[in-house]
Amino acid sequence: MSLGQQLAPHLPFLRRYGRALTGSQQEGDRYVRAALEAIVAAPEEFPKDVDPRLGLYRMFQGIWSSTHPDDWEAREQSSGGEAIARARLARIAPVSRQALLLTAMEGFTVEDTAYLIDTTPEEVDRLVSEALEEIEKQTRSKVLIIEDEPIIAMDIETIVRDLGHDVTGVAVTRDEAVALAMEDRPGLVLADIQLADDSSGIDAVKDILEEFNVPVIFITAFPERLLTGERPEPTFLITKPFQRSTVKAAISQALFFDQTTVPAEG
């Protein structure tokens, strides 16, 4: 099997990581493209003594670390998400956010993450704690949950409240989701794809976004259906079944890059 064939199954998830790291589909894909170009240009430099997925992320990390996020200041154009993130990034070391995303969202072990960012497992644990504390401090908001499975909805609600956010409501259908959003505007939406009456969480989100901008995290058992590269894709995507730490990381990142966050009361 060629190197390209070995890497292909992992590309959608590397793109997910790139988008979560940068807060932008276009920017994240730019880094992924640069990593692939580096592999094609010098395949002999691709790590041979590790799993192909680990080697792929290692190549991506090399590209990312060579372009520090502070370079955003020099760009002539940047998205609203990037603009609001600059102030926050000034208070959070980029490596802390990488450690958080690699462990909580991408599912790498502490040891693998240490390899990817050139540090020790003990330092990875410290960095993850640091990132969560700082991001949570900066991003308190109100959250709408769109989920038709009661147990999953309760679990998500607990996670959201544990992070210090308020829950505006839990919707089980498209119409209910839109009504709740209009009644009490959320600063974040967590949306399942398939809802109780066979309506679509994607359609519910589209309806809400026609009224106002809000960051969205989609939840699905089939992330590859949304990570096609052929249409606008969600920046934040959680795979079912999910880990609590994954949901926490996605919420923190979505609010971290958002410029329209509605503060929670109190």
Label this structure with key terms.
Rossmann fold; 9% strand; 53% helix; alpha/beta; 2 domains; disordered C terminus; Butyryl-CoA Dehydrogenase, subunit A, domain 3; globular; 12 helices; 266 residues; five-stranded parallel beta sheet
Distance between the termini: 57 Å
CATH homology superfamily of the largest domain: PhyR, sigma-like (SL) domain
CATH architecture of the largest domain: Up-down Bundle
Note the run of SSEs as H and E: HHHHHHHHEHEHEHEEH
Per the CATH scheme, the topology name of the largest domain is Butyryl-CoA Dehydrogenase, subunit A, domain 3
Q: What is the number of strand segments?
A: 5
Largest pleated sheet = 5 strands, parallel
What is the helix tally? 12
- C-alpha-based Rg, rounded: 18 Å
The percentage helix is: 40-55%
Rounded mean pLDDT score: 83
Give the strand order of the largest sheet, numbering strands 1, 2, ... along the chain.
Answer: 2-1-3-4-5
Name the beta content range: 5-15%
Report the principal-axis shape. Answer: globular
What class would the helix/strand composition place it in?
alpha/beta
User: How many structural domains?
Assistant: 2
In terms of per-residue confidence, which ranges show pLDDT below 50 for 5 or more consecutive residues?
69-80, 259-266
CATH class of the largest domain: Mainly Alpha
Structure description:
- The longest helix has 18 residues, at 121-138.
- This protein has 12 helices and 5 strands.
- Helix 9 (150-162) links the parallel strand 1 (142-146) and strand 2 (166-171).
- It has 2 domains: 3-136, Up-down Bundle (Butyryl-CoA Dehydrogenase, subunit A, domain 3), CATH 1.20.140.160; 139-256, 3-Layer(aba) Sandwich (Rossmann fold).
- Helix 6 (94-105) crosses helix 8.
- Residues 69-80 and 259-266 have low confidence and may be disordered.
- The protein is globular.
- The chain has a 5-stranded parallel beta sheet with strand order 2-1-3-4-5, sandwiched between helices.
- The chain is of the alpha/beta class and 266 residues long.
- The chain is 53% helix and 9% strand.
- It has helices at 3-7, 11-22, 25-41, 52-65, 80-89, 94-105, 110-116, 121-138, 150-162, 174-183, 201-209, 244-256; strands at residues 142-146, 166-171, 188-192, 216-220, 236-239.
